[in-house]
Amino acid sequence: MSVVELENVWKVFGSRASEAMAAIRAEGLGKAEVLERFEAVVGVKDASFSVEEGEIFCLMGLSGSGKSTLVRHINRLIEPTSGTIRIMGEDIGAMKSEQLRATRADKIGMVFQNMALLPHRSVRDNIGFALELRGIDGYSRAQAADRALETVSLHGYGDRLPSELSGGMQQRVGLARALAADPEILLMDEPFSALDPLIRRNLQDEFLGLSQNLKKTTVFITHDLDEAIRMGDRIGIMKDGEIVQIGTAEDIVTAPADDYVADFVAGISRLKLVSASKIMVNPDAHAAAHGPIDPAKSYPVASPEDDLDSLVGLSTGADLPVLIKHDDSIVGIVTKDTLLKGLQGGAEA
Amino acid sequence: MSGAVIGGGAEQREIDDRDVSVGTFLQEKVPYYAPVFEKVQRATLPRWHLNIWALLVPWLWSAYRGVWVLFWIALAIDVTAIVCLMQVVKFSPLLAEAQLNPEANATLIARYSHWINIYSWIGVLLLIGGRLWMASSANRLYYAQYARWRINSAVPSGVSMQRLVLGVMVILIVAPLTTYRATQLRLDERACFNHIRAAEGVEALLARYDASDVTDLMSILSGEITQRETRMEALNAIETLSDEQKSERAALRKEARDLGRDLELTEDFTNITARDKFDCYFIDDFPTLARLEPPEDITYRRVPDEEAIAAGREGATKVIEQIKDPVEGRKVTIFTYSAESIDISINYLRAQFAGGFDAMTNVLRQSLIRVEVAFMQTPWLVVAFLFIALSWAFAGLGTTIFVASSLGFLALFELWQIAMQTMALVVVSTAVCVLVGLPIGIWMAKNKWFRWITEPILDVMQTIPSLSYLVPAVAFFGISQPPAVLATVIFAMPPMIKLTALGILQVPESTKEAALAFGASEKQLLRKVELPMAIPSIMAGLNQTIMLALSMATISAFIGAEGLGAIVTSALGDAQAGKGLLAGIAIALVAMMIDRILKGIRNSFSRI
Ligand SMILES: Nc1ncnc2c1ncn2[C@@H]1O[C@H](COP(=O)(O)OP(=O)(O)O)[C@@H](O)[C@H]1O
Ligand SMILES: [Mg+2]
User: Which residues form a coiled coil (chain B) (predicted)?
Assistant: First the structure.
């Protein structure tokens, strides 16, 4: 069962949203026409995806593409104009307000780009906020908060005010706050975007490490493709409110769905992303062009899952092409030419 | 790549490529202006280069070309110059008249000649100098307009007949009337009032004598008078008059006199010249045209309700209304009409809700008494100690010294008890302000419509002079301490409300969103996020409210507030400057003490 499930979610902003929605349904209006005729902004356009337990799902797109809007549907900070959202099988749109608040406090933690900590509360009280809202007593709250602080390596900072911490530390507090109630789901809206590159890198690594242990189902938002590739098990690419492609980093880099995505991935290093199987040449085709494999010579050998980085390592210094073997049989061959083409991109079969 | 914007349609400005050439801007006379513009740009246009049209008809030129800056400046300079020259026209006849009798009027002659001299010089200099400046600046201003037009297409360009007509209309409205006014001496205010009275009187007479027009009315009136005079002469001719005849004659004389007065009024009316009317309507005060029937003069009184008492309800009362007969023919202005209507409504409310007003007065009086007791009966040593301890704990050494010396001043000048009375008044008023203002402020922050209504009301309240608040307080509650508290509360409340609302509205949307995301309810959001984050703003509001309450506590001494203010008002009445000054200093010291201590408390809060 998927933990988070979105089905044909639409969000139209404006006082005449429902009218606009009906017109979109009936006439298939575009964004510009909707704006012109109904003064309504299409924030999210027919989004569907699901996130499995323990998975990190990255939503990536330029600013204004509707990522924040979409992610706020998951805890119903924003009501969809149309469509359903299910949290662990339960329709969040059908929840009464009391149940909704309980779900938000117990099951969903959220981290914000601008931290949004409460400036008048100590770090510990900030972290215990969700528990406090649920009426948990002060002692248990403090214990949970200190545990969460330890998780984000901020042990001993509980009595500081947020303003006394650096940006990176504040965002750790934000993360600890989201983790304190031990929710199943984490929503992270560009959590590291406001940080310096070095600190961002640090926090990314740290969060990845954490994730391996905690196994939280995570929706991670970013406008930075590198970050999406680093963090995401799968990536959804958004453009103008629409999810244009969903897939693993390799899928997206090797088979962009359209020119927009292709433009995006053009500058991405493929060394660690693309595997041998994507670029290798069929042995027969190779034999036709260059003659058969000479079993006497010692060819470098790799498996189909190896990335281009390791193929480069094997190829340098060797005069012979690399044999790609699966279960001891040769499934493909990578010459230096193929490798260079593969690095450049656009040559996949 | 990160941070770039694609698809953000709103962020891409349409850049239209409109034609911004000099030719399009000028439309006419390009060969003259194009080189001039270039010289302006190079700063080589000589000061003595005059634009001939701007020299001759500056306002027409600038209206035609849309250089409205120059239009208004030119109009102002020229009209001022003409007004000065018109003073010469005004004073010349007076001078001529005075010169008929030079010995008696020596001072007048000297004064008039002096004025005529000065005004003619100023007028001529303004006219000539102004025109030279306009003619020399016109091209520069025009070039500046061109530069602005290149950036903003809404800036006027080209030439336009419409603008010219508009300019002429403006001149026609401004210039002739102003010029004419300058030639006239100040109007006698009563003259215009008499016009209106005469017109009203004649209207009534026309109706009474059923006359078709004023001439008709005059002949009827003189006919009536003649008729009575003839009869009187007949009576006078009789040697000995009976008592009856004597009283008839007296009656006739009176009637004739009244008729004569009516006739005089009618004659006055016909003698009003068109010019008088014009002067009254256009060159003096705004003409008060509307004259209304006054509102019915009703008084409301609460009296014992005999019927109900008879039916067994003890002490029952009811409101009765008494209507006074209207004064015949009384007409009032809109101002008087409204004022009287408001009086009647207040009167009604007072009678109708007497119980409510009494209860309110009572609550205020009781709480005031309690607080006064607390302040005045606590030994001075204890109060002084508390003040000094507070300032020491929150506001540091400097403030503590200041507070101690201020308290010393109050004690030495025997103002202690009176100052404590003022404190009590301020404390009660502030408490009411907080109790009422805080919820209103919260509601205002939460409800857009309520805010939309309340905000302008608060703005108006803050601009109304403080003395005005005494009027309704007195109207509803009479003169004593409770209405003084009430006036103080109303005067001091706006900042409390406004800054509470502001503080809540200032809480960042993202912070509220985060609280909601963690499952906060509306109430929790208010209690745990919005109010705590609004505290600095609320404290600032509290501080302002206290300061306003203190200043109003002084003013409301006029309607019975006791304390330092009462000393000031009584000193004002008896012209005892020294007494008033010392009490004034005491008030300032009390205000500063409270302000400093509160600031200290606020700072130590925000340090947390
Ligand atoms: N409350 C709103 N009313 C109208 N338009 C909105 C509102 N919120 C967001 N939008 C629009 O929706 C689009 C997506 O915004 P957002 O979700 O914040 O983008 P992202 O997080 O990807 O930068 C933007 O064009 C924005 O102008
Ligand atoms: Mg966003």
Answer: 235-262
Selecting from B5, B524, B529 the residue whose C-beta is nearest the C-beta of A64 gives: B5
What domains does chain B contain, in order, with CATH numbers?
Answer: 5-183 (no CATH), 189-282 (no CATH), 298-352 (no CATH), 360-605 (1.10.3720.10)
Interior/surface letters B416-451, b for 16+ CB within 10 angstroms, e for the rest: bebbbbbbbbbbbbbebbbeebbebbbebbeeeeeb
Looking at ligand 1, which atom is closest to the CA of residue A69? Answer: 17
What DSSP string describes A265-331?
HTTS--TTT-BHHHHPBPHHHHHHHH----TTS---EE-TT-BHHHHHHHHTT-SSPEEEEETTEEE
Q: What is the pLDDT of residue B198?
A: 82
Q: Which ligand number lies closest to the CA of residue A64?
A: 1
* β-pairing verdict for A234-239 and A90-91: unpaired
Helix then strand then coil, % of chain A, to nearest 5: 45, 20, 35
* Neighbouring residues of A95: CB distance < 8 A, sequence distance ≥ 6: A76, A103
How far apart, in whole angstroms, are the C-alpha atoms of residue B423 and residue B371?
Answer: 9
CATH topology assigned to domain A49-265? Rossmann fold (3.40.50)
Which residue is closest to A127 within chain B, CA to CA?
B518
Q: How confident is the model at residue B145 (pLDDT cuts 50, 70, 90)?
A: very high
Q: Residue A69: CB within 6 Å of ligand 1? A: yes
Q: What is the pLDDT of residue B10?
A: 43
Instruction: Find the A274 Cα to ligand 2 centroid distance in Å.
Output: 30
pLDDT in tens, B370-420: 988 888 888 989 999 999 999 999 988 999 999 999 999 999 999 999 999
Nearest CA to A54 out of A249, A266, A216 is that of A216
* Dihedral sign of CA atoms A194, A199, A202, A207 in order: negative
Mutate to test the pocket of ligand 1, among A9, A11, A13 (most ligand atoms within 8 A of CB): A13
Cα torsion for B22, B24, B27, B29, to the nearest 10°? 20
Cβ of A222 less than 6 Å from ligand 1:
no
Task: Report the complex ipTM.
Answer: 0.89
Residues 6+ apart with CB under 8 A from A290: A321, A335
How far apart CA B394 and CA B138 sit, in angstroms, is 64
Average pLDDT over residues A39-62: 95
Sheet containing A90-91: give its strands across: A90-91, A82-87, A4-13, A41-51, A242-247, A234-239, A56-60, A217-222, A185-189, A108-111
Question: Which residues, 6 or more positions from B399, have their beta carbon under 8 angstroms from its beta carbon?
Answer: B391, B596, B597, B600
Collapse the DSSP code of A333 into the 3-class scheme (helix H, G, I; strand E, B; otherwise coil) and give the result. Answer: strand
Ligand 1 binding pocket includes A66 (Cβ within 6 Å): yes
List CB contacts (< 8 A) between A109 and chain B.
Answer: 518
Cross-chain CB nearest to B519 (options A114, A130, A177): A130
Residue to mutate (ligand 1; options A38, A69, A239; most atoms within 8 A of CB): A69
What percentage of chain B exceeds 70 in pLDDT? Answer: 96
Output the CA torsion sign for B20, B23, B29, B31.
positive
Give bridge partners of residue A332 from the DSSP assignment: A324
Closest C-alpha among A206, A188, A346 to residue B514: A188
Would you kindly state where each structural domain of chain A is located, as residue ranges? 49-265, 276-344
| Ligand 1 atom 4, closest CA | A13
Closest-CA distance of chain A to residue B15, Å: 19
Which residues of chain A does B605 touch, with a Cβ-Cβ cutoff of 8 Å?
Answer: none
CB A337 within 8 A of CB A279: no
Both tokens of B405, joined, read: 């010396």
Chain A residues in contact with B7 (beta carbon < 8 A): 62, 64-65, 239-240
